[in-house]
């Protein structure tokens, strides 16, 4: 298998880019031809950003699993599709060939059907990073059910909200998950999430940690027993459901500037083609190479670059259950050495955390198999970039700094490994088909440069196949969030710079969304959780620079009647509340108790000031003249000192 649409030179990139802008339909149909379709599309694209109404490959029929599995069987059936590295390096790893993966997916698709799952039903998947997670995702896609994977670090309450929002009737989970030294009781979290739930009919529980779990008669069934029934019937195949190009493939919840996470919806054909195209071009994947993306499948990066991108390209993808620092900080390097990994794709926060352990963990690890390195999730600082380049890539591997979002389905701005130029801490150029524009607050394109650099809010002018289609159950929310700020444009929520070469550098969110260790967290979401704690009157949450996490969470809290008078304990109580409501990933790093918050006369919290104080820039707070009560600021400043 080779990839006719893999760009091979900077000149070719330029001409492909031109073509993609001048004739998007011709460009994308030329790529779509290389996939398996049950029926070809009638129209390549039809869209407006007003409603928005976006369709790609209209009239086309397909199933993404035939593209990810069946079409590889004839020539690559015995090639490894998934290499699974367990949390504990002493445990035996597993390799699933394309043939084996296809068989398991078909069998689990039977299990789903036997349990009543039908096309269009929502299936919530809450599992650790084991092959059965990828199998569940693909089995849903096989029968046309819509999967919604929830990351294992979310609390019962978060799952309950997502189950309700998606009106999910089915759950696939595990008894527990291993992550480093921890044992996470997934099924018991699901049990808590299901208290009072009336829509979920079946919970399929896969065994991993074999911690004791409660199994409710009529509702909970074991994965292994269900699979055995299918195997005993000798079933190894199931016909793939014929899907419309625009049928939903999955829902993935992500944080925005409002309190409630949004269910981003991606559809079958456009998402598949964009995940595949970006995978092949950004990483310059060559048949036979081993691709290791360290993300969790609970995030979009795992969806697109562990599962759908690599498998649709017939690649070998590494699925790692554990964490980079367990049993020691050399774990990534052990994995690279063990499987001769060629492409390593990780987050700046992981690099910064590993830098902190020095060079010892790299000693004696053979990293010579590496060809390409990648980063995603947050801006990468130059120091981390150079460390990655020198000590991991040994200065011979191009680093791709890939900018994208849950909503974009795949990478939008990045250098193409070894093909287009790299520039440390710059994501560089847009992929073909992607037309960025920087606008000012009014939505006018910024054209004026300062020292050769333009700065503005990052928008995209026209759709690419992987763009979100809606937010589940609430299309209006999709419109107001992404398409109403600047009419006619998709607004990313990020700020960016553009240099004279047309290279982009993403500077971070311009809305109230934080990026903590590469995870998106809405400040309003954290505030809502803090406010649920008895005794909290009001709170305001902002981000501040954090050496390892990129951003840390700083919470200002007005608290009444300090229980027992122990501030430290109250802080811990609040952290516990946030852990219950959202999950440990949203715990504030710092909590400052205050008696008031800086507000304007109209009652709006002036976050700009709170941000400055959290950053320690006490002498430079800017204009405070519109404040209702300027004394509040002095009090907060003094409390900080
Ligand atoms: C940020 C993750 C700078 C950005 C794929 C975006 C980045 C948000 C980069 C999306 C990058 C992602 N450089 N910032 N290379 N990649 N971001 O939805 O703020 O979890 O809006 O998708 O992460 O996060 P999400």
Can you describe this structure in just a few lines?
This protein is of the alpha/beta class and 641 residues long.
Give the N-to-C terminal Cα separation: 63 Å
Task: List cofactors, ions and other ligands.
Answer: 5'-O-[(S)-ethoxy(hydroxy)phosphoryl]adenosine
Largest sheet: 7 strands, mixed
CATH architecture of the domain at 513-638: 2-Layer Sandwich
Family: Belongs to the ATP-dependent AMP-binding enzyme family.
GO molecular function: acetate-CoA ligase activity; AMP binding; ATP binding
Domain AMP-binding enzyme C-terminal: 525-604
EC number: 6.2.1.1
Note the topology.
Layout: H1 10-22, H2 24-32, E1 43-48, E2 53-58, E3 61-62, H3 64-76, E4 80-85, E5 94-97, H4 98-114, E6 122-126, H5 131-143, E7 146-149, H6 156-166, E8 170-174, E9 177-179, E10 182-184, H7 186-193, E11 202-206, E12 220-222, H8 223-232, E13 243-244, E14 248-254, E15 262-267, H9 268-282, E16 290-293, H10 300-312, E17 316-320, H11 331-339, E18 343-346, H12 348-355, E19 372-376, H13 382-392, E20 399-402, E21 436-439, E22 454-460, E23 470-471, H14 475-483, E24 490-498, E25 504-509, E26 513-516, E27 519-522, H15 523-531, E28 536-546, E29 550-559, H16 567-581, E30 590-594, H17 607-615, H18 631-640
Parallel strand pairs: 4-17, 6-7, 6-8, 8-11, 11-12, 16-17, 16-18, 18-19, 19-20, 29-30
Antiparallel strand pairs: 1-2, 3-13, 4-5, 9-10, 14-15, 15-23, 21-22, 22-24, 24-25, 26-27, 28-29
Residues 254, 299-301, 376-379, 401-406, 427, 492-494, 506, 508-509, 515, 520 line the site of 5'-O-[(S)-ethoxy(hydroxy)phosphoryl]adenosine (WTA).
């Amino acid at each position: 298998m080779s990839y006719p649409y893999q760009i091979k030179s900077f000149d070719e990139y330029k001409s492909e880019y031109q073509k993609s802008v001048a004739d998007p339909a011709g460009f994308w149909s030329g790529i779509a031809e290389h996939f398996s379709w049950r029926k070809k599309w009638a129209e390549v694209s039809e869209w407006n950003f007003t409603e928005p109404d976006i369709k790609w490959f209209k009239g086309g029929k397909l199933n993404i699993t035939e593209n990810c599995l069946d079409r590889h069987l004839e020539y690559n059936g015995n090639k490894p599709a998934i290499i699974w590295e367990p949390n504990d390096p002493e445990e035996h790893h597993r390799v699933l060939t394309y043939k084996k993966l296809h068989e398991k997916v078909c069998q689990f698709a039977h299990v789903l059907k036997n349990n009543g799952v039908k096309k269009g039903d929502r299936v919530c998947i809450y599992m650790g990073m084991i092959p059965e997670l990828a199998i569940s995702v693909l089995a849903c896609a096989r029968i046309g059910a819509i999967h919604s994977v929830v990351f294992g670090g979310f609390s019962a309450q978060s799952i309950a909200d997502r189950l309700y929002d998606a009106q999910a009737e089915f759950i696939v989970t595990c008894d527990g998950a291993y992550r480093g030294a921890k044992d996470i009781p997934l099924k018991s979290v699901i049990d808590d999430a299901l208290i009072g739930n009336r829509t979920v009919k079946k919970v399929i529980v896969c065994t991993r940690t074999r911690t004791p779990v409660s199994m409710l008669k009529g509702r909970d069934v074991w994965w292994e027993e269900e699979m055995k029934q299918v195997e005993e019937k000798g079933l190894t195949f199931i016909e793939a459901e014929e899907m419309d190009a625009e049928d939903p493939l999955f829902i993935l919840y992500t944080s925005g500037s409002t309190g409630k996470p949004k269910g981003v919806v991606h559809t079958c054909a456009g998402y598949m083609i964009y995940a595949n195209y970006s995978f092949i071009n950004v990483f310059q994947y060559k048949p036979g190479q081993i691709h290791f993306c360290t993300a969790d499948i609970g995030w979009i990066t795992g969806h697109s670059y562990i599962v759908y991108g690599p498998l649709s390209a017939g690649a070998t993808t590494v699925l790692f259950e554990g964490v980079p620092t367990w049993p020691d900080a050399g774990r990534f390097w052990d994995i690279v050495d063990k499987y001769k990994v060629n492409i390593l794709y990780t987050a700046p926060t992981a690099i910064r955390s590993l830098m902190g352990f020095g060079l010892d963990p790299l000693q004696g690890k053979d990293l010579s198999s590496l060809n390409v390195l990648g980063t995603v999730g947050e801006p990468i600082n130059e120091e981390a970039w150079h460390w990655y380049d020198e000590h991991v890539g040994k200065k011979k591997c191009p680093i791709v700094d890939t900018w994208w979002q849950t909503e974009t389905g795949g990478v939008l701005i990045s250098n193409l490994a070894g093909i287009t130029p790299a520039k440390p801490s710059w994501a560089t150029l847009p992929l073909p088909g992607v037309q960025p524009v920087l606008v000012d607050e009014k939505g006018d394109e910024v054209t004026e440069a300062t020292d050769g650099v333009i700065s503005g809010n990052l928008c995209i002018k026209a759709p690419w196949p992987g763009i979100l289609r809606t937010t589940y159950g609430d299309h209006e929310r999709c419109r107001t969030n992404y398409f109403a700020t600047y009419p006619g444009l998709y607004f990313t929520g990020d700020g960016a710079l553009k240099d004279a070469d047309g290279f982009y550098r993403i500077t971070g969110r311009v809305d109230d969304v934080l990026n903590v260790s590469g995870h998106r967290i809405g400040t309003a979401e954290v505030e809502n959780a803090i406010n649920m704690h008895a005794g909290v009157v009001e709170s305001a949450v902002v981000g501040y620079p954090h050496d390892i996490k990129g951003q840390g969470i700083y919470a200002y809290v007005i608290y009444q009647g300090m229980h027992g008078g122990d501030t430290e304990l109250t802080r811990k109580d609040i952290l516990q509340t946030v852990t219950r409501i959202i999950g440990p990933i949203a715990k504030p790093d710092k909590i400052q108790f205050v008696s008031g918050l800086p507000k304007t006369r109209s009652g709006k919290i002036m976050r700009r000031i709170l941000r400055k104080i959290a950053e320690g820039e006490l002498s430079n707070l800017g204009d405070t003249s519109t404040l209702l009560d300027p004394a509040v600021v002095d009090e907060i400043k003094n409390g900080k000192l």
